[in-house]
């Protein structure tokens, strides 16, 4: 069965290529503002996959700039009516549709207090896009599948581009230009061992650290949306604070192994989990075990983008293997408007 999800995964490399050219001018403008304003606080905002993307941004900015990053609670503007005290802050809001009332209201609330709004939005004519001081189009085009794929990877790419421009990291900027080549390989990934093991799975953990945590949390969401598997995305270190008690022999765990300074920690965690009897499946740039999905090696900060792209391809196949249609998950619709 050919699905919209499969077609949209194949479009991921093209999305990143379109961003390079079409967002170049606003990226230069934002970089100039950031260097001049020197923000001391970053607030991120998003729901669902867009929230997961903000986790990536948190690790980028906190590890690379030492600036604290907080994830906003949209209900502050809709339910609690409580403005934030945010001196010399910027708000980065991520959304596929740009239509959710809580995100729009929160952006308006912060804008009234003088906070600059940076938008990472796919629908550039949406109500949320109109409130942005700096608007980055995700350039994913229409996503017909309910489960977001290309818009998520596109969101991470924009986060990385903003960071590279802000800190003047030419190595990362060059890596972003070459990223579509690695993604072209990732979209054709095969992982039959995982599909077989998860044929009848009901629950599992997905783990990662640092910038890879974003991909892990997103990966868990996709299992819930498309495969009807209760999956929890969790930090590779946090799993030992209670959750490990759920592990039984052959319990499935998917591990996103980074290529940055978190790598050795991730490998060590995997060994400990295997010692408890877990069946660990890893995404890595080299074969770390017999159950590893090997993906192309790129800049360490971009490794999660390649990993999640390869993973999407496998999960689309898993959904079909379990007799499901990943395009139309039960009880879900493409645009979720929350208050």
Automatic annotation (TrEMBL):
<feature type="domain" description="SIS">
    <location>
        <begin position="30"/>
        <end position="172"/>
    </location>
</feature>
<dbReference type="Pfam" id="PF01380">
    <property type="entry name" value="SIS"/>
</dbReference>
<dbReference type="InterPro" id="IPR046348">
    <property type="entry name" value="SIS_dom_sf"/>
</dbReference>
<protein>
    <submittedName>
        <fullName>SIS domain-containing protein</fullName>
    </submittedName>
</protein>
<dbReference type="InterPro" id="IPR035466">
    <property type="entry name" value="GlmS/AgaS_SIS"/>
</dbReference>
<dbReference type="InterPro" id="IPR001347">
    <property type="entry name" value="SIS_dom"/>
</dbReference>
<keyword id="KW-0677">Repeat</keyword>
<feature type="domain" description="SIS">
    <location>
        <begin position="194"/>
        <end position="324"/>
    </location>
</feature>
<dbReference type="InterPro" id="IPR035490">
    <property type="entry name" value="GlmS/FrlB_SIS"/>
</dbReference>
């Amino acid at each position: 069965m050919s699905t919209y999800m499969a077609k949209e995964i194949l479009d991921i490399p093209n999305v990143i290529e379109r961003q390079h050219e079409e967002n170049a001018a606003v990226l230069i403008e934002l970089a100039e503002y950031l260097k001049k304003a020197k923000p001391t606080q970053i607030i991120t905002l998003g729901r669902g996959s867009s929230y997961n993307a903000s986790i990536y941004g948190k690790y980028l900015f906190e590890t690379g700039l030492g600036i604290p990053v907080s994830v906003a609670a949209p209900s502050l503007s809709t339910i609690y009516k409580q403005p934030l005290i945010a001196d010399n802050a910027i708000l980065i809001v991520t959304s596929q549709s740009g239509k959710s009332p809580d995100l729009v209201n929160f952006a308006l609330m912060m804008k009234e207090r003088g906070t600059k709004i940076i938008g990472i939005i796919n629908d550039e004519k949406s109500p949320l896009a109109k409130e942005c001081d700096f608007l980055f189009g995700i350039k994913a085009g229409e996503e017909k599948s309910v489960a977001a794929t290309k818009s998520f990877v596109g969101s991470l790419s924009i986060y990385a581009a903003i960071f590279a421009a802000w800190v003047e990291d030419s190595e990362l900027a060059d890596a972003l230009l070459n990223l579509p080549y690695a993604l072209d390989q990732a979209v054709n990934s095969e992982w039959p061992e995982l599909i077989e093991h998860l044929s009848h799975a009901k629950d599992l953990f997905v783990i990662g650290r640092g910038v890879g945590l974003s991909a892990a949390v997103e990966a868990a969401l996709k299992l819930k949306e498309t495969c009807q598997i209760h999956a929890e995305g969790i930090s590779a270190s946090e799993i030992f604070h209670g959750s490990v008690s759920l592990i039984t022999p052959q319990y499935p765990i998917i591990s996103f192994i980074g290529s940055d300074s978190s790598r050795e920690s991730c490998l060590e965690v995997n060994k400990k989990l295997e010692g408890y009897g877990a069946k660990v499946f890893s995404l890595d740039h080299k074969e770390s075990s017999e159950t590893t999905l090997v993906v192309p090696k790129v800049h360490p900060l971009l490794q999660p983008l390649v990993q999640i792209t390869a993973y999407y391809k496998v999960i689309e196949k898993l959904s079909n293997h379990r007799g499901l249609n990943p395009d139309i998950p039960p009880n879900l619709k493409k645009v979720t408007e929350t208050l």
